[in-house]
Amino acid sequence: NGCGEEDVAERLSFLLARNRAIADDDDEELMVAEDVKEGNFAVFAVKGEETQRFVVELRYLTNPQFLRLLELAEEEYGFNQNGALKVPCRPQELHRILQDWC
Fold first, then answer.
1. What are the pLDDT digits (tens) for 49-81?
2. ∠ at Cα 10 (4, 12), nearest 5°?
3. What pLDDT score was predicted for residue 21?
């Protein structure tokens, strides 16, 4: 849809801030999981029946391949989803993107 990297990063920052605010309100169902430390966020790679949860460092927001996944996530799911962000890819694909960016 022509969104730039800054637009996607800004939307994701809003989503993360909103989810942390929800967690701060002690709504136990929407609390940020204990394994999601400061400077990280949770992502679910979802493709068909395949789903896997990843905890991703914020530095991946500068990775062009990861940003493309965020654009696809916005198109498919929107950024108004509660809880962890879902990206439309196979878990193996997200794992490869994260490994290649080290």
1. 999 999 999 999 999 999 999 999 999 988 777
2. 105
3. 52
Whole-prediction pTM = 0.68
For the chain, the first-to-last Cα distance in angstroms comes to 29
Domain extent listing, the chain = 5-100
Residue 88 corresponds to which tokens in the numbers above?
Answer: 């439309």
Residue 74 identity:
E
Helix (H, G, I), strand (E, B) or coil at 102: coil
DSSP states along 12-70 = HHHHHHHHHHHHHTT-GGGPPPTT--TTEEEEEEEETTEEEEEEEEGGGGG-HHHHHHH
